[in-house]
Amino acid sequence: PDIASRRWLAEKFEACGLIPRWDPAANLFGLPPQSGQPVLIGSHSDTQPEGGWLDGAYGVILALEVARTSQESGGPPVAVVSFQDEESAFMPLSGSRYFSRYLDLDTLYDLTNAAGQRYGDEATALPEVQGAEPLETNHFSHFLEAHIEQGPVLDLANETIGVVETIVGSRQFEVVIEGQQNHAGTTPMSLRRDAVTGFSAFVSALEQRYTAAATPRSVWTIGRVQVHPNAPSIVPGSVSCSVQMRDGALNQLDLMCDITRDTAQEIAEARNLKISSIQNKSVEPVDMDERVINAFCEAANLNAPGRWRRMPSG
Ligand SMILES: [Zn+2]
């Protein structure tokens, strides 16, 4: 269905005068015939299970409509793209990573999905991709993407447009709290080094300190918790958990990382536990081009006065 949807899209490109062009990653571009550096607009046409019919596809169809309108009205050259595998069947953003040269073709082709299929075997089996040439990023002047809101902010405020000013960055820690595993019936309370009560104190302290330091855009999640040995009659010996934080500003992420480490150390000392906190993921925030932001803000002001805002992406 993924490839069928893009073959359908290639037909739509031809119908409005764009030239379909596949690259070696099986990304599908629709290039305008006229000369000049086109602006590239698009998104992805795959989605998550039950991701909704607007995730990704909306941004591709919107781009098609903008390009079609521009062709019909003699506007500036607009190119369209549907990126392959945004949703991580093989790797998150694998198609756009290849296009932007964050991933070379050999590495891309060696990726395998959960079914054991190799990216390169699947891509080169497509006649469209055999002998396909890569496109350089400087073929295009800008890249724009329209995407359905992935959070409740606009919806709850009854607004229609969010102009993204930053793609937020994230930091993630793997925290391991070690106490002493013991018998729940025979170990007096005063002698316990209970990893779960330590975990509880750690989470409460983090909640308080993050809240005190947060900007309106800071979010944090302790999404995965594992207790060992996870049995009713045993004083828990260890707890491991993920601690993830996101914000659009680098200094805010750094501050939240410091809070995480300091809190771990304090709780460990106060409760005679051993707590290790290892940062294992880090994605840097990226600011969008101020000229593009301003152009979108002007347009939003004209078309949806009072019903739009600048915001970070999720
Ligand atoms: Zn999406």
From TrEMBL:
Ranges for domain Peptidase M20 dimerisation: 169-248
Cross-referenced Pfam families: M20_dimer (PF07687), Peptidase_M20 (PF01546)
Listed GO MF terms: hydrolase activity, acting on carbon-nitrogen (but not peptide) bonds, in linear amidines
InterPro entries: Amidase_Cbmase, Bact_exopeptidase_dim_dom, Peptidase_M20, Peptidase_M20_dimer
Keywords noted in UniProt: Hydrolase
Protein's name in the database: Peptidase M20 dimerisation domain-containing protein
Lineage: unclassified sequences, metagenomes, ecological metagenomes
